Amino acid sequence: MLRLLTRGWWLVALRGLFAISFGVVALMWPGITLQALVMVFGVYAVLDGVLSSVTAVGNRQHYPRWGLVLLNGLLSITAGVMTFVWPSITALVLLFLIAAWAIVTGLFEVVGAIALRRELEGEGWLILSGILSVLFGLAMVIWPGAGALALIWLIAAYAIVFGITLIALGFRLRRVGQKLNDRLGHVV
């Protein structure tokens, strides 16, 4: 399993590079429409899915669960293609999904803080965070344009951090692979 992971280190790093590129593009042009961001996301999802699928098929002899990796890649490709077929629905659904999540989470935080006020010191912070979450969700529903811009920044930040971690993991796998080759070379 370790050999399998270390052989494909460059695919992991390449996925990270794509993620960082996506995040930087989104940050450099925050005024672009959500439609354009959805298209950029579609390209990213397809590329990520292709790389995952290539990794799965290329390593099917060495990895018994290669089908799960392939399924993940195919789902990513499907999500990317769907963004091209229904870009406005994809953007709107994503925006409202995040808004609903923020509202529901915020309500649970407020209710939980009130229920625990006898046992929880400083429950005011939890209530405040819940209220802010609800207000954020409501703002996204009422002003989807502003919610879209906030969403762009959040997605961009996530993509950059995710990409950095993938690149770090890729190079870590490369080092481990080199050490593994050195050990096996000395053994043989």
Features:
mainly alpha, 87% helix, 188 residues
Question: If you had to describe this structure to a student in words, what would you say it looks like?
Answer:
The structure is a single chain. The protein has 188 residues and is mainly alpha-helical. It has one domain (2-187). The chain is 87% helix and 0% strand. Helix 3 (34-58) runs antiparallel to helix 4 (66-85) and helix 3 packs across helix 5. The longest helix is centred in the last third of the chain and has 44 residues, at 144-187. The mean pLDDT is 80.
Distinct helical segment count: 7
Could you report the average pLDDT, rounded to the nearest whole number? 80
Question: Helix and strand succession?
Answer: HHHHHHH
Helix content: over 70%
Radius of gyration from CA coordinates: 21 Å
Write the layout of secondary structure elements.
Layout: H1 2-7, H2 9-28, H3 34-58, H4 66-85, H5 87-115, H6 123-142, H7 144-187
Helix pairs in contact: 2-3, 2-7, 3-4, 3-5, 4-5, 5-6, 5-7, 6-7
Q: TL;DR?
A:
The protein is mostly helical and 188 residues long.
